[in-house]
Specification:
Order of helices and strands: EHEHEHEHEHEHHHE
Structural class: alpha/beta
CATH class: Alpha Beta
Distance between the termini: 37 Å
Family: Belongs to the short-chain dehydrogenases/reductases (SDR) family.
Radius of gyration: 17 Å
Oligomer: single chain
Mean pLDDT: 96
Organism: Ignelater luminosus (Cucubano)
CATH architecture: 3-Layer(aba) Sandwich
Shape: globular
Number of strands: 7
Low-confidence stretches: none
Bound molecules: NADP nicotinamide-adenine-dinucleotide phosphate
Strand content: 5-15%
CATH topology: Rossmann fold
Strand order of the largest sheet: 3-2-1-4-5-6-7
Pfam families: adh_short_C2
InterPro entries: NAD(P)-bd_dom_sf, Sc_DH/Rdtase_CS, SDR_fam
CATH superfamily: NAD(P)-binding Rossmann-like Domain
GO molecular function: carbonyl reductase (NADPH) activity
Length: 256
């Protein structure tokens, strides 16, 4: 907390979907450190409770709710809470799944549907449902969480990589349509970040070394590497940026 000297988000209300651990948690924490009131959420009550107690112990202003992003009633509860707080300035769509590690055309239909239901459709629905609250505040920011594999698919990322490519298009399309409304829409594409989601790669010795070999910086990211970028994108410092994706991957290859 003491390292964050900026208070760029004073008075802002933020929702970070999928934020009780990993990158989403670091984003929520950074927003709160910069002065925002943050609604954190994820599927499991125990994870929500643990995250809220850690953040409030740091003196940060957060509220926690259970929200499975694919459940309409859960999403409504989050936006009702934001409404009670006064509206919404910042919306981050961070939840994602990758139920299948393998090449894309080996993915079966149910896995494909699951990946697109959570990673793309739920992200679209949350953005759509949060938009009226953002409009009521006279503007704000939406950030989607993609991945470097959106640009540079690798075999083990299969359908997940394709879903993350879809978010690049969603970012562009939404940004253009909201550009005159003082609403920015941007995207972040992390490389490998040390979280539960990526631990099979970052913590398995044989795999870890070959993954590291693809990263010129020769280290995995940490959630705080991504949180600072998201905080920048939703701050006044980024007010002339919309429709863009920032890749943060330690120099890993990132071209379509
Ligand atoms: P993580 O450590 O597993 O954290 C994911 C968070 O989202 C948890 O709080 C989890 O809590 C919640 N969550 C999962 N599914 C959810 C759902 N259906 N509805 C609501 N919340 C849900 O993952 P992470 O590595 O931080 O990943 C966050 C984002 O970064 C994802 O979009 C991922 O694709 C992207 N990303 C990660 C990496 C990486 O290397 N880690 C790289 C590129 C992109 P519950 O279990 O309680 O729901």
């Amino acid at each position: 907390m003491s390292q964050i000297s900026k208070r760029r988000l004073d008075g802002k209300i933020a929702v970070v979907a999928g934020s009780t651990m990993g990158i989403g948690y670091a984003v929520a924490r950074r927003f709160a450190q910069e002065g925002a009131k943050v609604i954190i959420s994820s599927r499991k009550q125990c994870n929500v409770d643990a995250a809220v107690s850690k953040l409030t112990a740091e003196g940060l202003n957060v509220i926690g709710l259970v929200c499975h992003v694919a459940k309409a009633e859960d999403r409504k509860r989050v936006f009702d809470e934001a409404d009670k707080l006064g509206g919404l300035d910042i919306l981050v769509l961070n939840a994602a799944v990758n139920p299948m590690a393998g090449m894309v055309l080996d993915c079966d239909e149910s896995e494909w549907d699951k990946v697109f239901e959570i990673n793309v459709k739920a992200a679209f629905l949350i953005a759509k449902e949060g938009l009226p609250l953002i409009r009521r505040r006279g503007g704000g920011s939406i950030v989607f969480m993609s991945s470097v594999v959106a640009f540079h698919p690798v075999n083990f990322a299969g359908a997940y990589a394709v879903s993350k490519t879809a978010l690049l298009g969603l970012t562009k399309a939404a940004a253009v349509s909201l550009a005159t409304e003082n609403i920015t829409v941007n995207c972040v594409a992390p490389g490998l970040v040390k979280t539960r989601f990526a631990e099979y790669i970052t913590e398995t010795e044989a795999i870890r070394d070959s993954a590291l070999a693809l990263i010129p910086m020769n280290r995995f990211g940490i959630p705080e590497d991504i949180a600072g970028i998201v905080a920048f994108l939703v701050s006044e410092d980024a007010r002339y940026i919309t429709g863009e994706t920032i890749i943060a991957a330690g120099g890993a290859s990132s071209r379509l």
